[in-house]
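Slide 14.
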Amino acid sequence: MLKAAQQRVAGRDIRVLIVGDHTLVRSGLCSLFKTQPDIQVAGEATNGESAISLALRLRPDILLLDLSLPGKSGMQVLRELSGSNFHGKTIVLTAAIDREQIVEAVQLGACGLVLKDSPPELLFKSIRCVMAGQYWLERSSVSVLAQQLHCLTRQFAMPGQQAAFGLTARELQIVAAVLAGYCNRDIAEKLSISGQTVKNHITAIFDKLGLSSRLELALFAMKHELVEPL
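Slide 15: predicted structure.
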């Protein structure tokens, strides 16, 4: 109880809007959230249209969005909300990992991805992590995302067409190397600098972008097309 209470945002419950067309699933999620002292169900939506309407009206902290919806799909909901004044964080629910879906969902602003067969504890953790400003991905989807990012580093626009967020040219090179899957030692060899210098650059990059891990950097870089090709 104490641990959960300490994780509350600004001393209040995390308000979740559940979006899904299966009554039993929504009911099950509501029952699960009742066991958590820091999570409150703000509302339920059964389709894409009502999801958008309720998200804008109720202003939940977390939009728990099933990608498989009748009519307007979950991805369409994400797309429309990304162009609105909705400032909540979205976690998508999906039955299986799809490389293109993951990339598109993140590009449209999703902060987390949870498989429908995940244990409740992982769902709770994903909500708290996303509320703390982190990204959440299933282990298998991290691998898929890394593969896709490796391809995307060859496709992004050239420097000068992207926002640099205060990063230097060298730091942008290191971002590209991280996205390409290089470890610190490989980056050092490729750029002819020391391993400690690489560590210092990565620390500076994290500080400038407000990030704390390579996964967060990969997702941030993909979302903002923040890539300097090597």
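Speaker note: The chain is about 50% helix and 15% strand.
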